Amino acid sequence: MNQEIWTAVDSYYEDLMVRSDPRFNKIIEASNEAGLPPISITANLGKLLELLVRFQGAHRVLEIGTLGGYSTAWLARGLPPGGKLITLEIDPEHAAVARRNLSLFEFSSSIDIRVGDALDTLRILDKNREGPFDLIFLDANKSQYSEYLDWSLKLSRPGTAIIADNVVRRGNIINENSEDPSVRGIRNFNLKVSRESRLRATVLQTVSTKGYDGFSLIYVDPE
Fold first, then answer.
1. Quick count: other Cβ atoms within 10 Å of Cβ 171?
2. Residue 13 has what pLDDT?
3. Which are the contacts of 185, defined by CB distance < 8 A and separation ≥ 6?
4. Using alpha carbons only, what angle is made at residue 202 by residues 133 and 155, rounded to the nearest 5 degrees?
5. Which pLDDT tens digit goes with each residue over 125-174?
6. Alpha helix locations (H) across the chain?
7. How is the chain split into domains, by residue range?
8. Alpha-carbon distances, residue 142 vs 14, 55, 91, 123 (angstroms)
9. H/E run at residue 217
10. Considering the chain, what is the average pLDDT of its residues?
């Protein structure tokens, strides 16, 4: 098995099951033209996020890491009428691109992009009592995932779903001696999840057009 096969299978299921709205392709094109890093999630994972929002019956969603708004659009697509998505982006230029991209969609009014360091914005969300959120998606600075988890718990409720992307790091996550800040950050995050009595979690490894990685699926236990 190799990258060529993973990409072909991803494309097969994308064509068969996802049937992506052309506006999603425009997000990727506009983000590339604006010079944003090509690190958006795949269409198949995007569809999974939409389905998880629907499965969860989520009315309030929090996303940490907007980039060009691709994953944001998938999450917002799953919201019911009156639903709300708050997404956090540190880079003002990325946020501006995301706003233009998301304006293509009829649900853009349900999306609130907050610009600034995520840890500062999370603190403000908590202070202003803007939670709890029904679903939280983590896809930003991997070295800070542990801190994102702390704030996610404060902004969650019993039954909240937390999804954390890019937690396998092409297998490097098992290297306990890694000096990579992303690997170390995810390892700290994993340890915190495993020790938190309120959480039930698993990790799914994935192969796709983006290579080998995986995501955490975490449930805040009603106890």
1. 11
2. 95
3. 141, 142, 143, 144, 145, 146
4. 15
5. 999 999 999 999 999 999 999 999 999 999 999 999 999 999 999 999 99
6. 3-13, 22-33, 43-56, 70-77, 92-102, 118-127, 145-154, 181-195
7. 3-220
8. 27, 26, 16, 18
9. strand 211-220
10. 96
Q: What is the CATH number of domain 3-220?
A: 3.40.50.150
> Going by DSSP bridges, is the β-strand pair 135-138/84-89 parallel, antiparallel, or unpaired?
unpaired
Instruction: Write the DSSP symbol of residue 18.
Output: I
Q: Can you give the pLDDT at residue 22? A: 92
Q: So what's the pLDDT on residue 219? A: 98
Output the CA torsion 28→32→36→39 (10° steps). Answer: 50
Q: Are 145 and 185 in contact (CB under 8 A)?
A: yes
Q: Cα(64)–Cα(115) distance, rounded to whole angstroms? A: 11
Tokens of 21: 């709205």
User: CB-based burial of residue 108 (10 Å sphere; 0-12 exposed, 13-18 middle, 19+ buried)?
Assistant: middle
In angstroms, the CA 156 to CA 39 distance is: 27
Amino acid at 80: P
